[in-house]
Write a structure and sequence with these properties.
The structure holds two protein chains of two kinds. By secondary structure, chain A is mainly α. Chain A contains three helices and no strands. Chain A has a domain of 40 residues. The longest helix of chain A is centred in the last third of the chain and has 21 residues. The radius of gyration of chain A is 14 Å and the shape is globular. Among the domains of chain B are: 213 residues, FAD/NAD(P)-binding domain, CATH 3.50.50; 110 residues, Glutaredoxin (3-Layer(aba) Sandwich), CATH 3.40.30.120. In chain B, a hairpin with a 5-residue loop joins β25 and β26. In chain B, α8 packs antiparallel against α10. Chain B is globular and about 70 Å long. The chains are: A mainly alpha, B alpha/beta. Chain A: This is DUF2783 domain-containing protein.
C-alpha cells in the first residue's frame, strides 16, 4: 500500500479501539478483534499484504514470549 | 520526604535560605491601597511580580513559608519560558545553572524503540528544554525581585486567612508572627498553588478528572555518565509493571519516576525501604554500578482539573491555583509562567487606565484555552503512560510490541512536550485580512519566532517592555507615514518600541531601533516585503500583521489588543 493513515488519525483509532474493547468486555474482545480484522482485510484487495501483516503480528508475539516478561494484567 | 535522620530542608546540595519577617506598614497603623496583591512566592507569583515591576506596577507578594520550596518539584523549563525569563532580565543565571536538552529515548523490555528530537534550529538562542530544580528557579527570581525594592515587597511568613472583594478593592486577612492585619489591593493574583488558600476561601472548586495511577518521584545524587535526555521505560527488567522516567538535573542530581502498581499499598510504596529497593533495581537496569544517595521523594497522581473561570472580578488565578495538569509533557510550570505573564501585562495596562474593559475579560479565554489544549495532549500522554482501562492496556501492549519492528507506531511513545499556545481565537487578536497575505512568519496570536542576526545576536534580544512594532524596510528608506504611526501608537502605549528591520541602510527616525538584516533572512522568515508590519503584544504574541503597513488598521488592532471594543 502506498497510502497510509495519518498519525493523528491512527491516534484516534487507538482510542476508538480501546473504548470498543472496554465496551464488549474481556470475554468477547478476541471475537471483536477477529471480526474487525476480517472487516479491514475486506478493504485490502491484495492478500499478500494481509498475510504479511498477520506474520508481523505473530512475529512480535513470539518476541514477547521469548523474553518472558509479561506486562500488567495481560 | 527525606531519608530517616534528615530534616525537611536538609538537602544534599542546596542551602535553604531563611527569609525574615519584616513588619509591614499595615501593622504600624497604615492602610495603603496596593495596586496588586500576589498570594504565593513560588515561581508563578514571582514571575507575575517581575512582569508587573518591569511595567512599573508595584505589588505585594504574601508567602506563608520563610524559605523556598522544599525538595524538587518542577524541573523542565521550555524554550518559550526561557524567552520569557530573558525578557524579565533574569535568564543568565538560568543558563549558567540549567542543563539544556533536545532529545529523548523510549525503551520497551530494555530495547530502544523510539528516539525523539525536539526541533533546535540555528535561529534559536535557547534549547527546546532545560532541566533545573525548582528551588533554583525560585532563588533566582527572589534575587531578581530584590532589585526592585520600590516595586516588589515580598512578605514572608504571611498566611492568608480571609478574602473579601468590595467594589474597588480586594481585602486579605493576613496572619503573621506579629499578629494579623488586613491588606488592601486593587487586584489580587492568586498564585498559591494546587491547594490554593485563596481558591478555598472563595469557595471555588476545580472541575475535571482525577486520572488513575500513582507515581513515586525521587531525586538521587550520583556520578552517572549519560547525556541530558528524557528516558522512559515500559515493561523494563527493573520493574515490568511500572512505567519509569529518568531525567538529569544540575549538581549530579537525577530524577527518577515510577508508577505504583494498581492496588498497591500507597503507604508501603513511599516507605524509604521500598523507595531504595525500587531505585536500586532501576540503577541496575541502566548499568549504574557506582554509589548513590537518596535526596528526596514524593508521590503524585495525574489530574486534569481547572476552574471554570480564571478571573473572579478583581481576583485572577494563575498557575496551579487555576489548573492542575498531568506532569507528562512538562506543562505545569511552563503554563503557569505563561499565565503569570498574561495576567501581569494585562493588569499593568488596566491599572494605567489605557485599557478597555475587554482586556481583563480576555485572560480566561486565552489561558483557559491553553489549559484545555494541555488536557487534550497530556490526556493522551497520560493514557499511554498509565492506561486507565483494560482496552487501553491492551492497545498499549499492541503498540509497544509492534514498535519493536514497526516504525509507524513508535510516535505513540512520544511525550508530546509543551508547545506555546496560540491566541488566534482571542478577542484581542486581529486576524490576517487575507489568508494569502503572508506565506510565512508567526500568525496573529502566535509568539514571535526567534531569528539569529549574528553571533550571540538574536531578534528576541531587542523587543522593549511594552508593545512592539516590527517594521520591515528592506532596502528602502522608512516610509514617511511610519514615524507618525509610531507616534500615534505611543500615545496608546508609552512603552511602545519600533524595531526597523532593513537590508540596506534604512533611514533611522528618532528614538527607534534599527536591526540590520543584510541577507534578508528575517524578512523571508516573517514572510515580509518592504513595508510589512507586525504589531506585537508585551508578551511577545502577535496582535496583528499587515503585508503593507496600514496606519488605520494598525491603530485599530492596537486598540483591540488593549481590550477597547472596536466601534465599526
Amino acid at each position: 500500500m502506498n497510502e497510509t493513515l495519518e498519525f493523528a488519525d491512527l491516534e484516534q483509532v487507538y482510542d476508538l479501539l480501546a473504548e470498543a474493547i472496554d465496551q464488549v468486555g474481556p470475554e468477547r474482545e478476541t471475537l471483536l478483534l477477529a471480526k474487525l480484522s476480517l472487516l479491514l482485510a475486506h478493504h485490502i484487495p491484495d492478500i499478500s499484504l494481509v498475510s504479511e501483516a498477520i506474520a508481523t503480528a505473530l512475529a512480535n508475539c513470539d518476541t514477547a514470549e521469548s523474553i518472558g516478561r509479561p506486562g500488567p494484567d495481560l | 520526604m527525606r531519608p530517616a535522620g534528615r530534616r525537611e530542608l536538609d538537602s544534599l546540595y542546596f542551602d535553604y535560605p531563611t527569609y525574615p519577617f519584616r513588619t509591614p506598614p499595615e501593622l504600624a497603623g497604615e492602610s495603603p491601597l496596593h495596586p496588586v496583591l500576589i498570594v504565593g512566592a513560588g515561581p508563578i507569583g514571582l514571575v507575575a511580580a517581575l512582569t508587573l515591576a518591569r511595567l512599573g506596577i508595584a505589588s505585594v507578594v504574601l508567602e506563608q513559608k520563610d524559605t523556598l520550596n522544599d525538595g524538587s518539584r518542577a524541573i523542565c523549563v521550555s524554550r518559550y519560558s526561557f524567552e520569557t525569563l530573558q525578557q524579565l532580565g533574569v535568564v543568565d543565571r538560568f543558563l549558567a545553572k540549567g542543563l539544556g536538552w533536545t532529545s529523548g529515548r523510549c525503551y520497551f523490555r530494555d530495547q530502544l524503540i523510539y528516539r525523539f528530537a525536539m526541533p533546535n534550529p540555528e535561529d534559536e538562542r535557547f534549547y527546546p528544554m532545560y532541566n533545573i530544580q525548582q528551588q533554583y528557579i525560585e532563588q533566582f527570581l527572589v534575587d531578581e525581585a530584590a532589585k526592585y525594592p520600590e516595586l516588589i515587597d515580598i512578605r514572608w511568613q504571611s498566611e492568608v486567612s480571609g478574602v473579601v472583594q468590595t467594589e474597588h478593592a480586594v481585602e486579605l486577612q493576613v496572619e503573621t508572627p506579629e499578629g494579623s492585619y488586613s491588606a488592601k489591593g486593587r487586584y489580587l493574583l492568586a498564585a498559591d498553588g494546587a491547594r490554593s488558600a485563596v481558591r478555598n476561601l472563595m469557595d471555588l472548586r476545580l472541575n475535571g478528572k482525577n486520572l488513575p495511577g500513582n507515581y513515586v518521584i525521587a531525586d538521587l545524587r550520583m556520578e552517572h555518565d549519560f547525556p541530558t535526555e528524557r528516558r522512559s521505560f515500559f515493561e523494563s527488567s527493573a520493574n515490568p509493571q511500572a512505567t519509569i522516567l529518568i531525567h538529569k538535573q544540575p549538581d549530579n542530581i537525577w530524577r527518577v519516576d515510577w508508577q505504583v502498581p494498581a492496588g498497591a499499598d500507597l503507604e508501603e510504596a513511599v516507605s524509604e525501604a521500598t523507595v531504595r529497593a525500587r531505585v536500586a533495581d532501576i540503577l541496575t537496569m541502566i548499568d549504574h554500578t557506582g554509589s548513590w544517595e537518596l535526596e528526596w521523594w514524593s508521590i503524585y497522581t495525574a489530574n486534569t482539573l481547572c476552574l471554570d473561570d480564571y478571573r473572579h472580578r478583581r481576583v485572577l488565578f494563575i498557575g496551579d491555583a487555576a489548573h492542575i495538569v498531568p506532569i507528562f509533557g512538562v506543562r505545569g510550570l511552563n503554563n503557569g509562567i505563561a499565565d503569570a505573564v498574561n495576567a501581569g501585562w494585562k493588569l499593568a495596562y488596566q491599572l494605567r487606565d489605557g485599557a478597555g474593559h475587554q482586556l481583563l475579560d480576555s485572560y480566561t479565554p486565552e489561558r483557559r484555552g491553553a489549559t484545555l489544549d494541555v488536557f487534550r495532549n497530556a490526556g493522551k500522554s497520560s493514557r499511554f503512560m498509565t492506561p486507565p482501562t483494560r482496552g487501553y492496556v491492551l492497545m498499549r501492549k499492541a503498540v509497544l510490541e509492534l514498535s519493536l519492528t514497526q516504525d509507524f507506531v513508535r510516535p505513540f511513545a512520544d511525550p508530546r512536550q509543551v508547545q506555546p499556545w496560540i491566541y488566534d481565537q482571542s478577542p484581542l487578536t486581529s486576524p490576517d485580512q487575507d489568508s494569502s497575505d503572508f506565506s510565512a512568519g508567526p500568525p496573529p496570536g502566535a509568539p514571535l519566532q526567534n531569528i539569529r542576526l549574528g553571533n550571540d545576536d538574536f531578534l528576541l534580544d531587542y523587543p522593549g517592555r511594552g508593545f512592539n512594532v516590527l517594521y520591515f524596510a528592506g532596502k528602502e528608506p522608512v516610509d514617511a507615514a511610519i514615524p507618525s504611526l509610531a507616534e500615534h501608537l505611543r500615545k496608546l502605549d508609552p512603552l511602545l518600541r519600533t524595531l526597523v528591520i532593513g537590508t540596506g541602510t534604512a533611514v533611522d527616525f528618532a528614538g527607534e531601533w534599527t536591526l540590520p538584516d543584510p541577507a534578508g533572512h528575517l524578512a523571508r522568515t516573517y514572510g515580509a516585503i518592504p513595508g510589512s508590519l507586525y504589531l506585537v503584544r508585551p508578551d511577545r504574541h502577535v496582535a496583528g500583521r499587515w503585508r503593507e503597513a496600514n496606519a488605520v488598521a494598525t491603530i485599530a488592532a492596537m486598540n483591540r489588543a488593549l481590550g477597547v471594543p472596536c466601534d465599526e
